[in-house]
Amino acid sequence: MIRTLEERIALVTGASRGVGKGVVLGLCEAGATVYFSGRSTRGAGSTGGAPGTIEETAEEAALLGGDAIGLACDHNEDEQTRAVLERIRDEQGRLDILVNNVWGGYEYLQRGEYVHAGKPSWERPTSLWDEMFNAGPRAHYITSALAAPLMIERGRGLIVNVSYFAGESFRGDVIYSLAKSTSTRMAAHLAEELRPHGVAAVALYPGLVRTESVLAAGDFFDLSNSESPQFVGRAVAALAADAAILDRSGQALVVAELGEEYGFKDVDGMQPRSVRAEFAS
């Protein structure tokens, strides 16, 4: 990979594993200095019993020649989020890229509460609303609000809200669809607010990503057109390196389509196809 992001400073939230970890790797291979957050640490253990810690993410990033700094942070706690941004300001004085990836919407499954999966809204506990929104769109909003001044001061920057097609068409889960829709619309509204300051904001839709949890349930998925987490990171890196990114600000972009447009492939050399048509209303 061409190191197009040297001297850029990035923050990726929710990166102990999964898509967030892949974004850290994709940005590091492009030369960025990447701060990233997560709750899972070797000392405290992994949340929900899922594999992956911030230390492991940092070690894998180092193998790519990247400079990755893992910070323990629970984005349900605003003061912890504030501390992350204050550290970046103290150490770097700026922020060029923010990737809002943190997501707590599946924690009920990690607790073994499978009975709630697939149930209609009137048969599910209302607590699922808070789990999907607090460590999702609310965390994205708080982090963006704290990060924006670091970008506005320099007159440039990129905010990426990792979202999904479910925000545009109902996929059998009212709360999930609303949470993703909120993250997508937030990017569009932030784009309007930040455009005069030279800062772009977009929503980003991965396809089926080979995260740890997806691979663990591989018998239930057709992985023939799946994406590695790092493929999502390469999409973010391509967007951040685009000098005309303000022209795309406010849009909802599809990772696989960006691969075709910018000419990057997955780590296995494959070119995943967009699944947009599968979600057409």
Percent helix among the residues?
A: 40-55%
The largest sheet is: 7 strands, parallel
Whole-angstrom Rg: 17 Å
Count of distinct strands: 7
Q: Topology as H/E string?
A: EHEHEHEHHEHEHHEH
Top-tier CATH class = Alpha Beta
- CATH superfamily descriptor: NAD(P)-binding Rossmann-like Domain
Strand order of the largest sheet: 3-2-1-4-5-6-7
Mean pLDDT across all residues, rounded? 92
What structural category characterises the helix and strand content?
A: alpha/beta
Report what the structure shows.
By secondary structure, the protein is α/β, with parallel strands linked by helices. The chain has a single domain, classed as Rossmann fold (3-Layer(aba) Sandwich), CATH 3.40.50. Helices cover 41% and strands 13% of the residues. It contains nine helices and seven strands. It has helices spanning 18-29, 54-63, 78-92, 107-110, 127-152, 174-194, 212-216, 229-241, 255-262, and strands at 9-12, 33-38, 67-72, 97-100, 157-162, 199-205, 252-254. Strands 3-2-1-4-5-6-7 form a seven-stranded parallel beta sheet, with helices on both faces. Helix 1 packs parallel to helix 2 (54-63), helix 3 (78-92) runs parallel beside helix 5 (127-152) and helix 8 crosses helix 9 (255-262). The protein is globular. The mean pLDDT is 92.
